[in-house]
Amino acid sequence: xxxxxxxxxxxxxxxxxxxxxxxxxxxxxxxxxxxxxxxxxxxxxxxxxxxxxxxxxxxxxxxxxxxxxxxxxxxxxxxxxxxxxxxxxxxxxxxxxxxxxxxxxxxxxxxxxxxxxxxxxxxxxxxxxxxxxxxxxxxxxxxxxxxxxxxxxxxxxxxxxxxxxxxxxxxxxxxxxxxxxxxxxxxxxxxxxxxxxxxxxxxxxxxxxxxxxxxxxxxxxxxxxxxxxxxxxxxxxxxxxxxxxxxxxxxxxxxxxxxxxxxxxxxxxxxxxxxxxxxxxxxxxxxxxxxxxxxxxxxxxxxxxxxxxxxxxxxxxxxxxxxxxxxxxxxxxxxxxxxxxxxxxxxxxxxxxxxxxxxxxxxxxxxxxxxxxxxxxxxxxxxxxxxxxxxxxxxxxxxxxxxxxxxxxxxxxxxxxxxxxxxxxxxxxxxxxxxxxxxxx
Length: 441
Prior knowledge:
Layout: H1 2-14, H2 23-38, H3 54-57, E1 62-63, H4 73-78, E2 87-92, E3 95-96, E4 111-114, H5 115-121, H6 123-127, H7 140-147, E5 153-157, E6 167-173, E7 180-182, E8 185-190, E9 195-204, E10 210-220, E11 225-233, E12 239-248, E13 253-260, E14 265-274, E15 280-289, E16 294-303, E17 309-318, E18 323-332, E19 339-349, E20 355-364, E21 369-378, H8 382-390, H9 395-411, H10 417-440
Parallel strand pairs: 1-7, 2-6, 5-8, 6-9, 7-10, 8-10, 9-11, 10-12, 11-13, 12-14, 13-15, 14-16, 15-17, 16-18, 17-19, 18-20, 19-21
Antiparallel strand pairs: 2-3, 4-5
């Protein structure tokens, strides 16, 4: 399989023309060499013990086409969020689509758009951070992303600027008979005392087989505030591997709300480095698995400085024969005194065949800290179902009500109202679909 990507890389290089001698391409070559060296992980790797990527490696993915697939503005509008006032930035098969991206009215100095364009116009700004935080030394998927860096979203918010309108980054994969791969590369930088909300949405048009390999690097300046909502609603036959790397400056506040509904095989890697004093990090996640879905969430919070706080809540709802994985690590370094860290993982199993592997971890090298972690796995309470049915609710309605209550603990942490409404509607659809799949089994 590495030979397939090597051939693609050689073709990719031929189309770069004058960029072959740029420092950025030196980085690409180094990443490709690392990918050839380490190859795809296997279940012998401790970090991948519960997730086999063999189904992904058996498919001969080809680079995605730049063709728009006959998409119209009306069709794009169907994939936006109702009643959401946002600056829309659209990517089709990982490539910026300016004709569908009417992002305007942003505060002076704010940059939001195509990473490829800003590589040409802002090379010095990008070179400070692009591929500097998400390491590819031991991650084959990040190495692939770095080798094939081409386009994605770039967001820059200057010092002291508040962006009152959310930025909506829509990544749309088109229907295609040939399995294809995209490598969206995103970079988000916020200046001192700035504030922004970003919605990152991945969705597929058809039910075809494709592979989305996304990497997002977030650099939060001192005293900045970021809400970052990621919604993944890919094709049921898609593979989705994402890496999110966050670096926080002093007194910054970063919140991640990651919602996973789609995909056949999904792996989400989230790493936050609290690199400044008195910063706060919140990682929230909700996964809904149906049928034979496999959803793996790996998170790491690195408390590198003192007086910082982190709060993590990840929940999974699994039915059918779906499988979930949660591995959450909290590192507290020797000098990170006065750390306050809390990690919680909860899983709701809606069928006898669904299962979860959960592994919360704490590694503490400081002595003046408050750190807790815990994991629970269970099913719907039969007494609560009986109570609701005694009040006239049908069995499916009672189960849905309790399941929605379980999920709302994460969904309600999202501050953007239209996004919350969309996620609740999507949850209902997925639960109904899960019952349909189960009835046909």
